[in-house]
Batch of 2 targets.
Target 1
Amino acid sequence: DADVTQTPRNRITKTGKRIMLECSQTKGHDRMYWYRQDPGLGLQLIYYSFDVKDINKGEISDGYSVSRQAQAKFSLSLESAIPNQTALYFCATSDSSAGLDTQYFGPGTRLTVL
Amino acid sequence: DQQVKQNSPSLSVQEGRISILNCDYTNSMFDYFLWYKKYPAEGPTFLISISSIKDKNEDGRFTVFLNKSAKHLSLHIVPSQPGDSAVYFCAASRLAYTDKLIFGTGTRLQVFP
């Protein structure tokens, strides 16, 4: 089984709809991240969480919110989806006790907003 | 402003030859650099890293070189194999903040027989 899973893997929605992307991990890592990737661009950090009670904004947090329901779960919400949020979304985890913490990525969610 | 740049969007190399992927950065505070590899329909996977106290780090067929004065790093793959065909992302951070990675735009490597 994959260590970092994302659901759904693909989603098509309409402008104005609320949508939630979910991420679960079995790696036991304390840190979790949400990124988006647009065509021809690198990954951009949306939000990150160092533990259950810690939430931080990344480079492009506007239009998004997150919830860290448990150490193993980190969800990303689009309150009112718009077409320029069409992108590939990745969840990642890392272990702060590992020194130079390497981030481990999930398989991604392809979101299309019509 | 793109702090980490991969100016070659694609690279095509024959199997068995060397692949060289380049990355430039602008922020002199960066002191930790990573390469990630991404196959279609999968998330990026960590490949190799280097901190600024070194100028070279090697792991099997993969070697990363860092030129701090030029703010440039490169990934060498020798010999290249068809299974290396993927998108490669360079990323940078500060050692004290390795959770905050800044990614480049990626280079698509194709290794042909």
Target 2
Amino acid sequence: KQEVTQIPAALSVPEGENLVLNCSFTDSAIYNLQWFRQDPGKGLTSLLLIQSSQREQTSGRLNASLDKSSGRSTLYIAASQPGDSATYLCAVFSGGYQKVTFGIGTKLQVIP
Amino acid sequence: SQTIHQWPATLVQPVGSPLSLECTVEGTSNPNLYWYRQAAGRGLQLLFYSVGIGQISSEVPQNLSASRPQDRQFILSSKKLLLSDSGFYLCAWNLRRVGELFFGEGSRLTVL
């Protein structure tokens, strides 16, 4: 059974700092990995999707990497802004429609 | 572009009352549709998914049911709500089994 862990559970940083969020998974036989952000009381917004054949994906100030062999993905946020404050979740796709496993998320607070 | 609408956003219902949450996707055809529930401190739990009209797969035996009367419409229902049905319900869609997932804004259900 796939298990997804996100560490730390919460993170507080000053504005402008670069930061890294971590996502680890127990079964390396995955298809894709997707990062989301969730604002309080809202749905999930897709940030990046990394296919299993890719090592990383970039979108603006965000860069996500994937290392299947070690069961890890990282989300790098450059020059953080208060608007980046949200909970960030990763999801691992293990094959079936029902085989998407989500982490609990990292709650990020960027202090002005 | 594709959009997903989910309503109502907030719902307060007495125990034993019926439930109907609706989700509609626009701008695409033949999407895979999903209902998830998110509980505080826990990862998203898949409740139902559908790969086509009238095709529903249930992942968790419980007091809820789902229907897909049209290609881009997904409905979550209950005949009699329980206190334990309270939670945040999210509708999602993708085009491939392991394709990028897109979520609606969510529906907050409180059962009193």
